[in-house]
Amino acid sequence: MAKRPLSLTTYLAAQRGPATPAPPRPPRPAGPLVWLHAGSAAEARALLTLSARLDAQTSQVSFLRTGDWPDAELLPSETLGDIQEFLDHWRPDVALWTGTNLRPALLWDARDRGIPLLLADPGGPVHGAPAPRWLPDTVPLTLSLFDTIFVPDGHAERRLPRVSLGRAQIRRTGALTETTLPLDCNEDLLEETLTALSGRPVWLAAHLRGSEAPQVLEAHRRAARLSHRLLLALVPETPEDAVETGRAAEQSDLRLCRWDDGEVPDETTQVVLCDGPDEIGLWYRLAPLAFLGGSLSPGHGGTDPFEAAALGTAILYGPNVGRHLDSYTTLVDAGAARIVRDEDSLSGAVSHLLAPDRAAAMAHAGWDVVSHGAGATDAVIDRVIELLDTPHAGAA
After folding, report:
1. Is 187 known to be catalytic?
2. First and final CA of the chain: distance in angstroms?
3. Buried b (16+ CB within 10 A) or exposed e, 61-91
4. Which of 43, 73, 237, 343 is catalytic?
5. Which domain holds residue 42?
6. How would you list the strands of the sheet with 314-317, edge to edge?
7. Given phi > 0 = left and psi -120 to 50 = alpha, else beta, which region is 60?
8. Last residue in a domain, options 176, 201, 229
9. pTM
10. β-bridge pairing 289-292 and 314-317
11. CA–CA separation, 326 vs 263, rounded Å?
12. Same structural domain for residues 117 and 210?
């Protein structure tokens, strides 16, 4: 065990107290275990993306989640007895910490056991540790424990304290954000459908709720007055939404093609109706512009917008996106998404964005957001895999 620096010894003395009874814990999974600590709900969503991609690349990896997850394991207090019980039980092989709130005693003990520590720094506020102001500053020491610190930009790097912090530990990768992998698509079907559409402009209503269908259909009717070859693809979210959407489409008197019945749109088709989102990757590729459902009608919380952004689609959405508000805010700030509130604003937005250069500019902005987040995720995953493949003195 390495000798503790004076600042840590003083800090631990201030944390002295009896160990608390350990909460019931599930058994440690067999095989490699990666410890993911989320400093916020947004960072938890980013780590969820990362863990899914890491799981796809590395077989038999399990994850320990602490911090701001709905199903998080509780972190121990900063007393040594609680920390030792926690680490003795879980024995993580690699730890990835996000956020700026540090736990000096926990991280020191983990590093002392040979567990490699990674930090995904979100930028913004300076790092802090839970200690009285009169104690020596433990932040520089704690940051020096990390094998690698991933920072979003130069500003975040410059705000790091230089005491005991080697530049070799720091990598600028962009911010670690929630992203998604592009949805698959049958390439042969894509080519066949492109041929059948003969260059017609297409827009998409994705993950549509049945209650939204009349507004979307009316918006299409109005937009088609300015572009008579315009085609709308409706992709309902559930079978119940498909029934309600189909009923609304039939009542609209727009010429309808039922995709899942084997019908193919021709020059007279105005609306293509799918039964569900099984082939939504195809329609994102065909439509440069998409309205994301579950956002005009309250109670659904919206649809993950990175699904569309990952395939280069400009995004329209309604005001009810509480489940994905951070993601929409990021895309709006980048110029990749635009809010609509009813059929009037939806039809106006569709007509405005039918110009290829306008939709392309939004789509490019969205792709930049997704690709930057994916770059940071890839950099962290690569380092995690390197460390998992390198023997160390941690869990055995």
Report:
1. no
2. 17
3. bebbbbbbbeeebeebbbbbebbebbbeebe
4. 43
5. 31-176
6. 256-258, 271-273, 231-236, 202-208, 289-292, 314-317, 337-339
7. left
8. 176
9. 0.76
10. parallel
11. 39
12. no
Same domain, 318 and 344: yes
How many Cβ atoms sit within 10 Å of the Cβ of residue 12? 19
Say if residue 200 is exposed, middle or buried (CB neighbours under 10 Å; 0-12, 13-18, 19+): middle
Q: Which residues contact 219 (CB under 8 A, 6 or more apart)?
A: 343, 344, 346, 347, 350
Does one domain contain both 283 and 350? yes
Place of tokens 């410890």: 35
For residue 314, list its beta bridge partners.
Answer: 289
Q: Is residue 191 part of a domain?
A: yes
Q: Which two tokens stand for residue 330?
A: 């990021």
Q: Six-digit token pair at 241?
A: 């939404």
Q: Is 87 inside a domain boundary?
A: yes
Helix axis angle for 104-112 and 80-90, nearest 10°, is 50
The letter for the amino acid at 98 is T
- C-alpha distances (whole Å) from 313 to each of 15, 188, 197, 206 are 52, 20, 18, 11
Domain count, the chain: 2
pLDDT in tens, the chain (396 residues): 566 666 677 777 766 666 677 788 999 999 999 999 999 988 998 899 899 889 988 878 999 999 999 889 999 988 888 999 999 999 999 999 999 999 988 999 999 999 999 999 988 888 887 766 666 778 888 898 999 999 998 898 888 886 555 555 889 998 888 777 788 999 999 999 999 999 999 999 999 999 999 999 999 999 999 999 999 999 999 999 999 999 999 999 899 999 999 999 999 999 999 999 999 999 999 999 999 999 999 999 999 999 999 999 999 999 999 988 988 999 999 999 999 999 999 999 999 998 889 999 999 999 988 887 888 899 999 999 999 998 764 544
User: What's the one-letter identity of residue 372?
Assistant: H
Q: How far apart are CA 64 and CA 66, in angstroms?
A: 7
Q: Which residues make beta-bridge pairs with 38?
A: 67
CATH code for position 77: 3.40.50.2000
Q: Do 276 and 339 belong together in one domain? A: yes
